[in-house]
Amino acid sequence: MPKSILLLNGPNLNLLGTREPTLYGSTTLPSVITSATAQAASLSMTLTAFQSNHEGALIDRIHAARDEHVDFIIINPGGLTHTSVALRDALLGVDIPFVEVHVSNVHAREEFRRTSYLSDKAVAVIAGCGVFGYEAAVAFVARRLGVGEKGARL
Ligand SMILES: O=C1C[C@@](O)(C(=O)O)C[C@@H](O)[C@@H]1O
User: Fold this and answer.
1) Ligand 1 centroid to 38 CA: how many Å?
2) pLDDT (average), residues 133-142
């Protein structure tokens, strides 16, 4: 079985590419997903993507990931990063390792964006690299899982 990644995007990330472009750039979410899917395949992994503007839908998708034996989750929780105990509990509940990604540098913005309900439980946190953060996350997960690129482990 190839290793599998679930790429989750939370509220408002469907607007990526058109939303506040000075902060988030001009690359759309479908484009990010197409690239990440191809990148994962090139590293002998599968990648499934899901975006929702609804906290409960994201939680349901995380629960389903356990039944699907997903190996790693990459999540940009959007604004739920700073508010959601329930999303934290879902990720801890399924016990699937995850990487937290933010397109913008959340530490260089409003004070409330410096608090994350997920970061202390994430294997890694990537912020401020623009949409390259997703590519970095997929490459990191491959190394962590010991696939692709000579099976190097982090
Ligand atoms: O929706 C988002 C996007 C974001 O997660 C990012 O990718 O930089 C940062 C969050 O603070 C914000 O609410």
Assistant:
1) 24
2) 98
pLDDT-above-90 percentage for the chain = 95
3-state secondary structure of 72: strand
**Residue 148 — pLDDT band, cuts 50, 70, 90?**
confident
Indicate which CATH number applies to the domain containing 35: 3.40.50.9100
Residues near ligand 1 (Cβ within 6 A) = 12, 76, 78-79, 81, 102-104, 106, 113
Quote the CA–CA distance of 48 and 117 in Å, as a whole number.
24
Domain that residue 108 falls in: 3-151
Catalogue the active-site residues: 24, 102
Report the relative pairing of strands 3-9 and 45-51 from DSSP bridges: parallel
Structural domains in the chain (count)? 1
Tell which atom from ligand 1 comes closest to the C-alpha of 101.
Answer: 7
Given a cut of 70, is residue 91 above it in pLDDT? yes
List phi, psi (to 5°) of 32. Answer: -60, -45
What ligand 1 atom has the least distance to the C-alpha of 10?
A: 1
